[in-house]
Amino acid sequence: NRQVTYSKRRNGLMKKAKEISVLCDAKVSLVIFASSGKMHEFCSSNTSVVDILDHYQKQSGKRLWDAKHENLSNEIDRIKKENDRMQIELRHLKGEDITPLNHKELMALEEALEHGLDGIRYRQMDVYRTKKKNTKMLEEENKELINYMLNPQGNAMKGGEMENNEYRHQQVQDYEDQLPFAFRV
Question: One cellular component GO annotation, for this chain's record (predicted)?
Answer without folding.
Answer: nucleus
